[in-house]
Amino acid sequence: MRHSVILDKEKCLGCTTCIKQCPTGAIRVRRGKAIILPNRCIDCGQCIRVCPHKAKRAICDELDALERFRYTVALVPSSLYTQFQNMKDIGQVLDGLLNIGFDDVFEVARASEMISAYDRKHGASERASSPLPQISSFCPAVVRLIRMRFPKLIPHIIPHVAPEELAAILARREAVEKTGYQPEEIGIFVVSPCPARRTVVYEPEGLSCRVIDGAFSMNDIYRRLLSAMEKPREKRTQSTVSIMGAGWAIAGGESAARLTGNYVAADGIDNVITMLEAIEDGRLSDVEFVELTACTEGCVGGCLVVENPFVARMRMKQLMKALPVSRGECRLAPEDESLLRWDKTPEYIPVLELDSDRGLAMEKMMQIEKMAADLPGLDCGSCGAPSCHALAEDIVRGIATEEDCIFKVRERMLYMSGTGDADDYLPPPFRKEQ
Question: How far is it, in rounded angstroms, from Cα 292 to Cα 274?
Answer without folding.
Answer: 11
